Amino acid sequence: MSADSQAPSPPPELASGRFSGREAFARRLRDAFAVAAQQGWREMILCDARFLDWPLHERQVVDSLQAWSRSGRTCTLLATEYDTVVRQHARFVHWRRMWGHIIEA
Question: Are strands 103-104 and 43-47 parallel, antiparallel or unpaired?
Fold first, then answer.
């Protein structure tokens, strides 16, 4: 390997155990989406009443979802209402429109 080329960075370690606060929750989700993309998880199930505290509006998260998306993958979204997703997570909504064939809501 030449000095100019770099080996891909290893996926972040997924944290386990308790956490406290919204930022810790968001950080764990960011890490999980990145690991899903790097390890090629076949299925993701995202479940929340409204997805209010999820970082689905962030470019980093949508980039991870884009890297994860390919044929044979499925993502299931479970919520009591999706208005918050539409209002607060525009990047995710745009990604979902492009990849609607692998997403169930």
Answer: unpaired
Residue the block writes with tokens 């999980």: 32
The pLDDT tens digits of the residues spanning 25-84 come to 999 999 999 999 999 999 999 999 999 999 999 999 999 999 999 889 999 999 999 999
φ, ψ for residue 38, nearest 5 deg: -70, -35
| Contact status, residue 61 vs residue 30, Cβ threshold 8 Å | yes
Task: Name the pTM for this structure.
Answer: 0.84
Closest CA to 92 of 60, 52, 62: 62
List the domain boundaries for the chain.
22-104
Q: How far is CA 102 from CA 15, 45, 69, 91, in A?
A: 27, 12, 8, 17
pLDDT of 36-48, one tens digit each?
999 999 999 999 9
Sign of CA dihedral 61, 103, 91, 49: negative
Any alpha helices (H) in 40-89, and if so which ranges?
A: 59-68, 83-88
